[in-house]
Amino acid sequence: GTTLGQSAAEKGRYFGAAVANHRLGESNYVTTLNREFNSVTAENEMKWDATEPSRGNFQFGNADRIVNHARGQGKMVRGHTLVWHSQLPGWVQGLDTNNLRSAMNNHINQLAGRYRGQIHSWDVVNEAFEDGGSGARRNSVFQQRLGNGWIEEAFRTARQADPNAKLCYNDYNTDDWSHAKTQAVYNMVRDFKNRGVPIDCVGLQSHFNNQSPVPGNYQTTLQSFANLGVDVQITELDIAGSGQQQAESYRTVTRACLNVSRCTGITVWGIPDHYSWRADQTPLLFDRNYNKKPAYNAVLEEL
Ligand code: XIL
Fold this sequence. Notes:
The chain is α/β, with parallel strands linked by helices. The chain has helices spanning 4-10, 27-36, 48-51, 61-72, 90-93, 97-114, 141-146, 150-161, 180-195, 218-226, 243-258, 294-302; strands spanning 14-19, 39-42, 76-84, 121-126, 166-171, 201-204, 207-208, 231-239, 263-268.
């Protein structure tokens, strides 16, 4: 193929990008999006603070525009994200146990219900584990008020709300197979599969930089999750750097995914460097003038 999306499709996979609604009027941005990518994730527009800023008051305009653009172009859509401790409106933090449970389930029902049948995969729960060596659950309002059962409750609710979407658990710093956090997520997914909790995929965000580069055992991590009977998706890829060094890291990630049959797709977390959430690290595949970087060429060669 001559584009990322087309080449990935030839390998039975997708290649996506995170998209910001407020860029959809920029012609270079839209031209590159439409040409190169066959999957779209809303960078912020489906998050809880954007979609339910006050209780029961749902706002779907910006998310709808992204979904409609993607589907109008024949692209698939990843839903990001139903339950996350961050970008969570203040009103959720103040709820007691019963109200938090009903607010969480209602939020999932409203989001997954609105886009029912239109979402390839939902990040049902995002970032529920602590960093560091403890392997513990993050001390979020969900964990505090609802206890250990909240993650599986979210997955069961999501399955009912959109039975056709693949349901993913998504996290970062879960790339190195030897890390406690990776093992903690692995153990949760294994337990879910053993007990019939509905989970279909694990998303590895894969935000890499000099402090946390692509680990040498990255493919082992992908394969280990896949061996549990779930798909693996690389959901928010970006890699700090430039030139050939950055290109080789992107090549390694792409090759690892292609080497794992259940690694079904890669999403990069933005299109041109200067719109990245980490713009100072120039972590993406296009420069600020939408020129293809060496990293782009490495990915396309590998695909
Ligand atoms: C980031 C967005 O890129 C930023 O625009 C926003 O200000 C903060 O969130 N993990 C995730 C993503 O799951 O939703 C985050 O996206 C990056 C880290």
